[in-house]
Amino acid sequence: MFVLEPLLTDGIAQLSYLVADTSNGHAAVIDPRTDVEVYETLARKHGVSITHIFETHIHADFVSGSRSLADRVGTAKIYVSDVRADYQFSAEPIRDGQEFDFGAFRLTARHTPGHTPEHMSFELCESKHSAMPWAVFTGDSLFVGSAGRPDLLGEAETEGLAKDLYKSLYDYYLKLEDYVTVYPGHGAGSACGADIGDRMSSTIGYERRTNQFLRFPDFEAFRRFVVDDAPPAPWHYPMLKKVNAAGPEIMDRLPSVPALPPSEFRKVSRESGVTILDTRSMLAFGGGHVPGAINIGARPEMSAWVGQMFDLDQRLLLVVDDDSDVEAVQRLIVRTGHSRFAGYLAGGMKAWEVSGLPLQKLEQVSVEEVHQDQSTASHFSLIDVRSPSEWESGHLPGAEHHFIGDMRDRITGLDKSKSYATYCASGYRASIASSLMQSRGFKQVANIPGSYGAWTAAGYEVEHEKGSKS
Questions:
Q1: What is the DSSP letter of 359?
Q2: Which of 45, 60, 316, 351 is most exposed, with the fewest beta carbons within 10 Å of its own?
Q3: pLDDT tens profile 328-387
Q4: What does UniProt give as the signal peptide span (predicted)?
């Protein structure tokens, strides 16, 4: 029996796949994530052995699990592109057109550069109909409603990669039959492509008719759309490129995280290179937290934001809702390369409180209060920390735009003696920003829970980039 199991990694919106033939017991995994035991569990469920691990390209947004999976199962080889191969670990190079026979099905490698120079896609066909692929694993070259961005390797590479991407899309994908199913490497929410669709799969025919990346008659128009209108590249992507090219360290288990009583936690927090990461909700954090902590709530998107905000050599001190949450929080963090943990606060904030140690608060102001404040004497200066495209689509009247991705190294243009209130779409990113500002000496900073979503739901007026209001 043929098996195809897609696995969505929430937060980074990454898609990996297990494909298998249960009649001969062989299976392949395409683009495995860091916590690889999920693939071993699936293989056991179907009674198959993972023999092949395929990498579509050197990933930028998560740590590859290929080496860890190969080590864990002990029966698999890793296969990577032989084109401009910057891989620095042991793996089998594959060429364009190379076929892999798994009994009932066959995978064929197709060189589809553009997102990266080495990028490979994999056609899937029945062995008895080897000239008729019915599906293609597109990695980060073609997405549902979108395509991979060619600008992640720097300005010097962008023009050439944009040309390669155009050729891959128009000379390869658009020449496939309409019925071919598209299995991409990412879903909605990934920054590896602009405005990726919500569905986890599509067809060539549907994309041919609806995907705006596939509707340009010439390269120049395509280049302007893909390069000039690209959203900001996340800061941590180049770092993860280097990690994945060198070969991520094999992770046979999650790193140890010592349980620290409050006094020891406070002592360690003062050490150089240590960051306090409070993973509770924004309202819990606002009510009281360890001074200097940064708030990134334990939701799936935490993976991307920890990667975006902290260097890989930072040692993280965790504050969690409950001690039993530590492992789940770790799993989110290690996916974007962070594996250095200084410990966690044993007993949580309750233990900190009863120890009589200092508490810091972060004011939470509702959209109603902000609206009333704007109607009278302005108390808060509003800071919009959303992406440039979100800002341009509409913002709170009188707000300044300071994209959160640009605040990690320094916060420029803001007076620490003034009062600020931060907002995003829902309050999650705003709480990251306001806690970061507070940790850097801003004395009067607040967060707006609900943020832009709550503002528009209340029917309040919004302003657009050129000053018009609605």
A1: -
A2: 45
A3: 999 999 999 999 999 999 999 999 999 999 999 999 999 999 998 776 556 889 999 999
A4: none
d(CA 184, CA 164): 18
For residue 447, give both structure tokens: 């967060």
Running DSSP on this structure, what letter comes out for residue 197? Answer: -
Low-confidence ranges of the chain (pLDDT < 70): 375-378, 465-470
Q: Provide the 8-state DSSP code for 170.
A: I
pLDDT digits (tens, 9 = 90+) for 156-200: 999 999 999 999 999 999 999 999 999 999 998 887 777 888 899
pTM of the model: 0.90
Token pair recorded at residue 410: 């320094």
Q: Is the dihedral of CA 112, 117, 120, 121 positive or negative?
A: negative
Q: Side chain identity at 313, as an amino acid letter?
A: D
pLDDT tens digits along 307-327: 999 999 999 999 999 999 999
Q: Are 341 and 315 in contact (CB under 8 A)?
A: yes
The residues, ordered by sequence, that sit 6+ positions from 215 with a Cβ below 8 Å of its Cβ are: none
* Cα–Cα distance measured from residue 123 to residue 108, given in angstroms and rounded to the nearest whole number: 5
On whether the CB atoms of residues 396 and 370 are closer than 8 A, the answer is yes
Is 250 in contact with 67 (CB distance < 8 Å)?
yes
The partner residues of 184 in beta bridges, in order of sequence, read: 139
Which of 299, 305, 350 lies closest to 328 in space, CA to CA?
A: 299
The helix/strand/coil state of 384 is strand
SS (H, E, C) 41-80: HHHHHHCCEEEEEECCCCCCCCCCCHHHHHHHHCCCEEEE
CATH of 2-246, one of 3.90.1180.10, 3.30.70.141, 3.60.15.10, 2.40.400.10: 3.60.15.10
Using an 8 Å Cβ cutoff, are 277 and 317 in contact? yes
Question: What is the spatial distance between Cα 367 and Cα 423, in angstroms, rounded to a whole number?
Answer: 10
Report the side by side order of strands in the sheet with 400-401. 363-364, 444-447, 419-423, 381-384, 400-401
Name the CATH code of domain 363-457 (choices 3.30.70.20, 3.30.9.10, 3.30.1360.120, 3.40.250.10).
3.40.250.10
Q: Is the dihedral of CA 212, 217, 220, 221 positive or negative?
A: negative
Which 8-state DSSP code applies to residue 172? I
